[in-house]
Here is the input.
Amino acid sequence: MNPCLMIGAALLVSAQEWNQYRGPGGKGDASSSDLVTSWGKDSNVVWQVPVPGKAWSSPIVHQGHVWLTNATADGKKLSLVKVDLATGKIAGDFLLREVAEPQFCIPYNSHASGTPVARDGKVYAHYGSPLTACVDAATGKVLWERTDLKCNHHRGPGSSPLLWENLLFLIYDGFDLQYVAALDATTGKTVWKADRGIDYGTDNGDMKKAYATPALIELDGQLQLVCPSAGSTIAYEPRTGKEIWRVKHGGMNASSIPQVAGGLVFLGSGDGGWALGAVRLGRSGKLDDSAVAWKTARGATQYNSIIAKGDLLFTASEKGFASCLEAATGVTVWQERLGNKFHASPVLGKAGLYLFDDQGKGYVISADRKYKVVGTGQLPDGCMASPAVVGDTLLVRTKTTLYALGKK
Here is the structure.
């Protein structure tokens, strides 16, 4: 039995569900899905539907519908969109909150960058400090909401929620306040809240913010909620919020979901710091350099998350590079420049890695030690959101449109 596993939002997720950011376990793994390897605006498009507004959140799939958080460009309206998976028709567009004075958001972020999570007929939508809401999937009715969990995101929100048992985990790493909260998924009430307590070495709030989504891992029967932040990553006991370990890696704007393999957890530090590194699991307290297996700037990614497959790691960077690294050592196996910036995280299909850049160009790259372009495609506008997979269908959200790509 593998002593180190990533735990998904639900113990059992069918092939017709992709119910959280990057799918089951947050791994981006759809390696059993036979996805198309070429596409265009009118080629291998099962359906497409315009999605007005500005939002970088990824699609999820729950109970036969695609769900998207959405917002107006100015952040004054926060909504949740429901799309019929079979037809691509809008089945609901639910306005959840109107915000009189939205926080500042930089142009290459959005007010709805957090991807929702769903289970048992409920959808949990998170927009950072302005709103977290639980919505009935059948009716769109808001079952509970929280608007009192404060922090100044300074340049817009980015973290997505994680659901486990009856707990909804949220990360708030802002300019002014930095903490992790666990809410009761049924009532929305706070179960625990843990302040980060990180020595950032500066009073500059810009160096304290981050956008990462937590990962739940199991190591030798112990569950750990691993939550990256600026400067450090901290693991908590998920039921109580008690700290298990922390490691200092420097940097700011951390956005990557931790991945695990071979007794290591792989962390991205965002801007500065390690860039990309591996920490040996099985330790507690404040970890020193002996816990660090390796760190490297080569192949690191700032905005998105990595793919772990067997003994290899795969990344797509904001500088337009795709890279393959040895998971055990961090040594680069190959690195190739594909073109434009990658904000969206890759997903793994049967044919290989699926990468989408900010200009709408898509690539299928072999997920092994030999670099090979298996296929390409182009969609109008750019891709800031990470794709989702359901069955053999690839769901891609561009800046303006949601596409279902598949064999016709």
Remarks:
- Residues 277 and 295 are 4 Å apart (CA to CA).
- The mean pLDDT is 95.
- The radius of gyration is 19 Å.
